[in-house]
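To whoever picks this up:

The parser on our side crashed when reading a file containing two proteins. I've narrowed it down to the boundary between the first structure block and the second sequence. Both blocks are reproduced below exactly, byte for byte. First block:
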Amino acid sequence: MTPVKMLLLVAILVHVGSSFPLERKPVGAGAGPAEGPDVGPAGREKVQFASWDDVNVLAHGLLQLGHGLKDHVDKTKGQMRDIAAKLKSFNGTVAELGKLTRRLGEEGDALRERAKQMARREERVLNASADLQALAQHVRAEGDGVRDRVGSLERKMDILLRGASATDDSNHSTSDVNTLQWMLETQSKRIDDLVERIRQQQDKLDKQNMRLQALQTEVKQRRLKSVVMRRAEEVSMDEPVEHALPPNELASDCHELFLRGEKQSGLYTIQPQNAKPFDVFCEITSERGWTVIQKREDGSLDFNKLWSDYKNGFGSLRGEFWLGLEKMVSISKQAPHALQIELSDWRGETQTLSYTFQLDGEENSYALHLQPTTPNGHLESALMTGAQGLPFSTADRDHDLKEDSNCALQLSGGWWFGSCGHSNLNGRYQSGPTLAQRHHRKQVVFWKTWHGRYYPLKTTTMKIAPVVKS
């Protein structure tokens, strides 16, 4: 019963009690009705109040009012207990937030200290790079001086040769010519040594520049990490997940989602065994659920990244992206997997390639093990790994099989390079089939066994799924 209803009931009872009529009756047996007031022995008027039934009605109303008030008090006590419990929970949450804030502050301080250390390392690398550049300039200047001296010796030798033909002292001339030839050979050897030293110094300078670029990238990532941690509970990867499941019900991959009855392709959160949850794009077909690990479609994303980017992944799951080598390992190590590569050209033609898929961890440079599953396997031969596997390479981690070259530096992007010339689906995207300049033609997205070495592909998709036993 609400307080308004109880007040209304009290008002009604008061009104009823106040409106009871008073009865006056004569005293004495057989007395008729009297017109005057009933007078008692002492001459006072005798008054009688409401009947017993009216009193019962009033008492019953008051009893109901008491029960209503009791119910209201009990309900109020329950609400107070609920409020107290919520306040206690809120106080606990505030305490947890305080602990989390302190922890984030400590981690922020540690990150700032790490950033300072990285800045100092960056400064040392810059100084070393400047020293190397100065040394390279000195070597170049020395080489120019040697070339000038060789030119002067060649001119002197021409003069002596012409003088030797006009003199009779042939033995003396021959001795001078031999001496000059020996000097020229010595100078040529010195020039070759200097050229080799220049090449070595240039290689060191290139490596230092790559290290500097990697350090700069790491510094930026460290500086952004604290902000990312604060937003970790609000933002997942780049976009909200379309199909979210409770944490205790996360599937280990897209194929498990397919086995659970999911039929719609899109963004999902998965959690492979012994790994943290992360978002993926699942392509659900009538036969299985594929986890997409790479997608190129319009050139909106630059794939010329370094090792750490290819390890952790980059891009948008709704557009172009690279899932990340660590995530690929965590998915594929759960069971034997298949790899499917889909290619398209600028004429609207498509090709699909199929392999068995195995990927080693970072300790083996994410070595790839593939085996074609199609009958002839001609198209698949552009990416053959052999029994030992093919390690992954980037500009700052050269693991390709060509000893005298850095394929990732020459061709752009990161890939499982063999001898640089068979495939690269992470190269520079070119909008249209027209061949670019000679230097850029090597760096396009290509698959040599389909349209050749310099044809830029329009779209590529790489996806993996557990092997389905027939």
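<<boundary where parser fails>>
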Amino acid sequence: MTVNTPALCFRSKKILAPMVRVGTLPMRLLALDFGADIVYCEELIDIKMVQCKRVVNEVLETVDFVAPNERVVFRTCVRERDCVVFQMGSADAERALAVAKLVENDVAGIDVNMGCPKEYSTKAGMGAALLSDPDKIECILSTLVKGICKPVTCKIRILPSLEDTISLVKRIEKTGVAAIAVHGRKKEERPQHPVHCEVIKAISEAVSVPVIANGGSHDFIKEYTDIEAFQQATGASSVMIARAAMWNPSIFRRKGLCPLKEVMQEYIKYAVRYDNHYTNTKYCLCQMLREQLESTEGKKLHAAQSTQEICEVFEMGSFYEETTAILEAKASLKAKTQDKDEQMEDTDVIKMTVRFDKREYPPQITPKMYLLEWCRKVKHPQPVYETVQRPLDKLFCSVVTVAEQKYRSTLWDKSKKLAEQTAAIVCLRTLGLPEGKLNEGENHLINKRKRENQEFLNNKEHEDDLLVEASHKRVHFTEGASDSSSSEVPR
């Protein structure tokens, strides 16, 4: 048996539980501020993660794992590197290993979710569905333990019988995991059902690996001192807190809970600082407000449609403006530096400082159309566009290749379509060709379209005439047939 030597200790720890939509970077950092020892990220599905690329975000000073559609799936930073555990949803050992290898240098540990009872997880064989397949559990965990250098954990729920539960955790222990987190409810039970402390205690006594007790928010944990009471009731090595921390992350504060508004303002600071999507920020704040959602402040939060509007609800408008100004300045400076580097590298690319303005062109006429038309006319291969997005500010730049020569603008655009039009303009102007602007006089493409439209209308009218004529013939033929058949009817 291969056993990792974990750098992260799971004994006597207070841990932020993995929570979907809640365990993003702002919440994890806030939990650490208040005293959490370890923080788990929200469950992230292996299939999505394996498609991601690792991007160092120099403006935010984060490491981002970015999906093909440019959405940030997982964001982390140096502050949490030694205490964040990456939780994944997986039902495939090799895919789980691929994800673990992708993120292991940026996290302190890897966890596999084996307790989520929600359908979106179980229908893919993940989460609580794994509890009925111990062979697969063993395969996934053994593959991870042997394949990476960081500690591996898993989070499970208890089985219908204590005997089966003990048998499972002993089998999990043999894989070499660093800890086992146990939610003390069965997969069909919900938060309103009592947590089974006695089962967690039996598990703690049955294995030597650290056991992390979870599920005490409803029955036990209302303030910091309750965390120790839950640990004693379960005999666990550590305690993992979910909903009590979601409602107020200062549950980890030894001196007691902070006023909720202060906590929410601190959360918002992290959300702005790390460019958290406003919908996620809004969701987490709504979970904190709970019964206060119908208050004036709650209604304003519910109506907010941007991070700036959220900040204004909590009297943080000036903080938003100052912070975003700093981030924009950093992005601008980095972009200028990057542009200079690219100018030195792209010696074979013809560049021009231009931008596409749709208002300068007739409707449905674009530089790309003019360039394509010209290439066809002179029998060149059609233009080839290569477009990239800059992760710093999410702007686009396109390079168009025509007759083995490349062209691009030095300016970056807000969309892929605009960037391609701009590249086409650079090519057309370099070659001294018209680009279709309104001030260029007669537009041959417009005239061509008018001719094509007229031809289409003429053909349509001709087709309509033929259809009418054919219809008359069918009616005449039918009437004749009807007369002849009626004459054969016996009288």
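After patching the parser it read the second block fine. The first strand starts at residue 14 and ends at 16. Confidence is low (pLDDT under 50) at residues 1-6, 473-491.
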